[in-house]
From TrEMBL:
Listed GO MF terms: electron transfer activity; FMN binding; metal ion binding; oxidoreductase activity
Membrane-spanning ranges: none
Protein name (record): Flavodoxin/nitric oxide synthase
Lineage, opening ranks: Bacteria, Pseudomonadati, Pseudomonadota, Gammaproteobacteria, Chromatiales
Keyword Flavoprotein: yes
Cofactor(s) in the UniProt record: FMN
Top-rank taxon, per record: Bacteria
Keywords carried by this UniProt record: Flavoprotein, FMN
UniProt key word Hydrolase: no
Length: 431
């Protein structure tokens, strides 16, 4: 058997049938329309897909990515509808997360002659995944940007695109069909059995939402990847989740560029060092501290924004945080803890790059005052620097204590203005 017919009907994904994208190029993935939460944190109103692709050349077949383990039966049925296992010469893994490698061990058993192709950052991850032994050593080919593998009349070329969104990520380009197998990049959690973007209704929300939660923390890596991808002739983008992008695929590159560069701060200009102060206050004491901190920081040359979390939504604050140089969080201590809105905001910051930003904590307290130290620990956990020791004031601040708050603000602003964000001493290092 060399070339089994496409078995899709009406271009839609049937339970056990591959979908033809081009002659000899098939989608052999799986649909998961009932999923409502992905990876514990992502909402999926339309479920998702685990996209896997099969490329047939004159000298062998390549399988690009697999599916989540629970969907292996669908994947193998679709694969078998267009190829035999002994034809598979190459298995490419663009990214080793389990939703794309769940069926890999069984595929390797069924196609033992196939050579694994993974990125140069993936071997350690692959070993952890497959647990090789002396009896069953691991064989693979680590590939980098520009490396190619031939399928006879078709060529797969690799692009190293790390951190999108795991360190091991790569993209694979089918030269003769101008098709980019992009992994999670340009993907989205949107399940529609019609499979192709021009047939799948409006999934822009899912596309942007996926970017915001998966790619946003890696904006600089997105820009590096775009430098590799944008010069390529491009007729199809075939991601690992969501619709296959064959209608005007460059729009999705443009959108990624927009999402990776266009922040509100950049649009309006942001030349001054910026400090955003968030606070909650039970009796107005932490609020008075926040106001004095603002005064001091402004005296030292920072542009300061002050927000009472009691009156705001989390998402716009996340955008503010992303464009700020420094953050200060003020919380009273209630039952030995900082208050919930502070934690809500701090726990929402994992979607942005915080490394190198400065952080500070302050608050009024009645008995024990643990909140300040807890907030500082969390900021350090987010890889922020905490250059000024946290400021705690028992109950109502005196005039002298408000002067301390101004000094605190001044010191924090000076740390930004000095331009030494990456080198300031963290007070924790001195303890
Ligand atoms: Fe879809 Fe990062 O796995």
């Amino acid at each position: 058997m060399t070339h089994l017919p496409s078995t899709s009907r009406n271009g839609m994904a049937e339970a056990t049938e591959a979908v033809e994208i081009r002659p000899g190029l098939h989608w052999i993935g799986a649909l998961d329309p009932g999923l409502r939460t992905f990876d514990i944190i992502l909402r999926t109103a339309n479920g998702t897909t685990y996209n896997s692709y099969l490329v047939r050349g004159s000298d062998g077949v390549a399988v690009i990515d697999t599916v989540k383990a629970e969907f292996a039966d669908d994947f193998f049925a679709r694969l078998e509808s267009v190829a035999r296992y002994d034809e598979i010469k190459v298995i490419v893994l663009n990214h080793l997360e389990p939703d794309h490698t769940g069926a890999l061990p069984e595929l390797m058993r069924r196609a033992p002659q196939a050579r694994l192709h993974i990125s140069t950052r993936a071997p350690a991850m692959l070993k952890a995944l497959l647990k090789p032994s002396e009896e069953h050593p691991l064989e693979y080919q680590a590939v980098d940007t520009g490396d190619e593998v031939s399928l006879g009349d078709r060529t797969l070329r690799f692009l190293h695109t790390p951190f999108l969104h795991w360190p091991d990520t790569q993209c694979t380009y089918l030269v003769e069909e101008a098709t980019l197998f992009s992994g999670d990049v340009f993907g989205c959690h949107h399940c529609d059995s019609r499979m192709f973007n021009e047939q799948c209704g409006d999934f822009r929300f899912a596309f942007d939402y996926y970017y915001a939660h998966i790619m946003r923390p890696f904006k600089t890596h997105v820009m590096d990847a775009l430098k590799l991808i944008e010069p390529l002739p491009l007729q199809i983008i075939a991601p690992t989740h969501g619709p296959i992008l064959r209608d005007r695929p460059r729009r999705y590159l443009t959108r990624y560029r927009e999402l990776s560069t266009s922040t509100f701060a950049e649009r309006i200009g942001n030349e001054e060092p910026t400090l955003v102060v968030f606070y909650m206050s039970s009796y107005g004491n932490t609020a008075r501290m926040a106001e004095s901190i603002r005064t001091g920081a402004e005296e030292a040359g920072a542009r300061v924004s002050l927000y009472d979390l009691e009156g705001g939504e989390i998402q716009p604050f996340v955008d503010l945080v992303e464009s700020a140089d420094a953050l200060a969080f003020g919380s009273p201590t209630i039952n030995g803890d900082a208050v919930k809105p502070i934690w809500d905001l701090l726990s929402s910051l994992a979607v942005i790059e915080l490394k190198g930003k400065l952080g500070a904590a302050f608050g009024s307290y009645g008995w024990t005052g643990e909140a300040v130290r807890m907030i500082e620990d969390r900021m350090r956990g987010l890889k922020m620097r905490v250059p000024v020791a946290g400021l705690r004031i028992k109950l109502i601040p005196t005039d002298e204590e408000l002067a301390e708050c101004r000094d605190f603000g001044r010191a924090l602003a000076s740390a930004i203005v000095s331009g030494e964000k990456g080198r300031v001493i963290d007070f924790a290092d001195l303890g």
